[in-house]
Amino acid sequence: MPGQHRNTNKRIVVILVSLCVIFIAWLLLRFFNLSPKTKNFSGGTILTVATSSQFVYFSNLDGVGVAEQEAETPRVVGIMIDNHPDARPQSGLASARVVYEAPVEGGITRYFAIFNNDQAVQKAGPVRSARPYFLDWLAEYGDALYMHVGGSPEALGLIKERGIFDRDEFFWGSYYWRSRDRYAPYNVYTKSERWQTLWDKTAREKSEWEGWKFSGEKPAISTSTSIASSVAIQYKTDYAVDWRYNSSTGKFARFVNNRPHNDPETGDQLRADTVVVQKTIVTIVDSYGRRHIQTIGSGEAIVFRQGIMIEGTWQKNSLEGRTRFYDAEGEEIGFTPGQTWIQVVPLKARVETK
C-alpha cells in the first residue's frame, strides 16, 4: 500500500536522524572531555593538560592521574640508596616517584628514593644506612615504610622514638638480598614484591598525608622566573651533578661527572619532570663527619620545570608538615606531574645555571 510505504520511509528517516544526533552528541562529549581541567585535592591544585583520556583523581605523590579516589593518597616506601662510587650505577632510581639527594659523611651524597607501594620495581639499591634528616622528609608521607641497612646512632634512636615502620636489613634480611657481582657493603638490594609483602603482613592502617601542588601548564615568565637549559651542582670531587633540559621530552636529563646517569636495569638515562635545589644549613656534628641538615624552617630554593627556572624559598613548619616551595610573590610553585628530584645543598654549594 502507498500509505504503508510512506510510514515505513518516515520511520527510516526518524531512525537515521536519531542516529546522527547521537553521533554528533558523542563527538561533542568527546571533544569537551579533551579540554583542560582544574582539579582540587588535599595536596593542592592540579592543572591537567589535554590528553586522550582524562582523570578525575590525581596522586598526591606525583600528580599523575589515577583511576580511583582511594589511589590519590598511596602507601609509600622510602629506601636509602648509596651513592659511593663503588655503588654506581644504582638500580631503581628511574622508577622512584621522588628522589632526595643530600650530603652525608665526607661530603659525599646519598639518595632517598620514594616509591608508590603498588609500583612494580624489580631491583632497588644498593640499600644503605639511615640518617636523621632523611627521617624528617619521610615524615611528610604519613606512616610510610622505611627500608635501610643499619644507621647512625641518632637515626636508629629516632626510628624507635617515632615508631617508624622500618625494616632494617640487619634484622629483616629475608626482604633483601646480597648481590654476588658486588662486594659489601655495596651489594644489598630489594624489590617491590618484597616490600609489598611487608605491607600485606602489617596491621597498620593507611594514613592520610598532603602532597605538593602540581601543574601541567608551563610557568609564565615573571619576576621569579627565567629560561634555564641546565643546572650544575658541585657537591665535591666526583660528585658533580648536571641536569640538562631536553625540549623534545620536556624533561631534565641527569648527568654525574659529565656522564649520563643511567639505570642499569633499563639502560635509560635518568630524567626528571621537576628538579628542585633546596639550600639549607649543613653542619658537621662529630668526628665521623656526620652531618646535621636543617629540615624544619625556611631557606632559598630554585625550581626547574619545563625549561623554566623559578627562584624562591622553601618552608617546612613542622616534622610532619610538607616542605613547600614558593616563588618571589609568595605563591606556591606547582611541580610538573611525574618524577621529582630534590637536590639538598649547603648554603655555600656551587650551583650554576644556564
TrEMBL record:
Pfam families documented for this protein: DUF3048 (PF11258), DUF3048_C (PF17479)
Cross-referenced SUPFAM superfamilies, in alphabetical order? YerB-like
Domain DUF3048 stretches: 66-197, 231-342
- Does this entry carry the keyword Amino-acid biosynthesis? no
Keywords, alphabetical = Membrane, Transmembrane, Transmembrane helix
- The UniProt transmembrane annotation reads 12-32
Q: How is this protein named in the record?
A: PT repeat-containing protein
The organism encoding this protein is Candidatus Magasanikbacteria bacterium GW2011_GWA2_46_17
The taxonomy runs: Bacteria, Candidatus Magasanikiibacteriota
